[in-house]
Amino acid sequence: MVNNVPGAELAIRIRGLSVERGGQNVVAGLDIDVPGGSVVGLLGPSGSGKTTLMRAIVGVQDRVTGTVDVLGLPAGTPSLRRRVGYVTQEASVYRDLTVVQNLSYFAALAGVPAARRRETVGRVVAEVDLGGHEKQVVRTLSGGEVSRVSLAAALVGDPELLVLDEPTVGLDPVLRRDLWSLFRELSRGGRTLLVSSHVMDEATQCDRLLLLRAGGLVADVTPTDLLRQTGAPDAERAFLALIEGSAAEEAAR
Ligand SMILES: Nc1ncnc2c1ncn2[C@@H]1O[C@H](COP(=O)(O)OP(=O)(O)OP(=O)(O)O)[C@@H](O)[C@H]1O
């Protein structure tokens, strides 16, 4: 299921991607195009292969077959390291360091020259709206603030593509809404965001939706088309209809 968007530059182009984990193909035969500058939601039940797909896109997944091109280069190419930001499910910041200490460290890792680190840290703190918390030790921050420090750490290299694995998990509805408006804001600057989630109502915040089930792509649609095609009143029921339809199709084969 490939959408050809005329004239749109692709941030991610995947053809025939399969991934073996634990002796099984947990992702099988995926073809996906992600247009540049869009917010794309990666949705699907637990174990459907979302994290595996993201790992293949950032180039850290073993036992991958097929083609995964990111910003025009094969996934994992060293020059993509600064151009792609990856936020894993577990916050990967140091809890015993302050916000600024963490971000300065990640800026150094991303290769930001020492003379520009202070300015870079200031930029990302403002981008994720953490002003006033700069000197706070991460362990003393709220869950939503820690999520935003992780996001800021991924932004220090000013990446063109952000891959975010379930960034809103465990956050209350207000924080989830705030984080999604931040994602929209980041994409307005021309970045591409691939965001995974279990929470189907977050689908409405995306430009496009990729729905995975059992390692396969069940749908690649806009939120409007999703509701129109299924006739469901909301994203959650639309996804359930698609997931159940695809499971029934598979059983009939
Ligand atoms: N190291 C591993 N060895 C064997 N199987 C694995 C390994 N890692 C993942 N898997 C399996 O691969 C499948 C896809 O896992 P993945 O983490 O990509 O799913 P997910 O959609 O991100 O799930 P969740 O939403 O629960 O995080 C699952 O069935 C999982 O059990």
Structure characterization notes:
By secondary structure, this protein is of the alpha/beta class. It folds into 2 domains: 178 residues, P-loop containing nucleotide triphosphate hydrolases (Rossmann fold, 3-Layer(aba) Sandwich), CATH 3.40.50; 70 residues, no CATH class. The protein contains 7 helices and 10 strands. A 6-stranded mixed beta sheet has the order 6-7-8-3-9-10, sandwiched between helices. Strands 2-1-4-5 form a 4-stranded antiparallel beta sheet, with helices on one face. A hairpin with a 2-residue loop joins strand 9 and strand 10. It is globular. It binds adenosine-5'-triphosphate. Adenosine-5'-triphosphate binds next to helix 1. Adenosine-5'-triphosphate (ATP) binds next to helix 1.
State the main characteristics.
disordered N terminus; 4-stranded antiparallel beta sheet; 253 residues; 6-stranded mixed beta sheet; binds adenosine-5'-triphosphate; 35% helix; 10 strands
Brief summary of the model shown:
InterPro entries: AAA+_ATPase, ABC_transporter-like_ATP-bd, P-loop_NTPase. This protein is of the alpha/beta class and 253 residues long.
